[in-house]
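Reply to dn_fold:

You asked what the input looked like. This is it:
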Amino acid sequence: MKVGMVASHYPHATHREEFIARVHRVAEEFRRTPGCLSADCWVSDEAVVSIVQWESEEDYAASFAAVAAAGLDIDFDEREARPREIVRLAAA
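and this is what came back:
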């Protein structure tokens, strides 16, 4: 069953461009992993939004393992003005 994730990130204005680049790097790594159907970065006036879709829950887990193995920074920290909003999705 396909699964997805929509993650809204709220970087401080001084870190916005850095954060967008950070999300793009993670999306590139996600797309390299088997079973990742899409990984994109979107922006609004207040948020940087990651939208990712996988073929299965196992592929989701493998993508995050690949990101960790690649040493990419996905941790919440002081560069963000407020906590992330992450919605996990499953195909109906």
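Residues 16-32 form the longest helix (17 residues).
Hope that clears it up.
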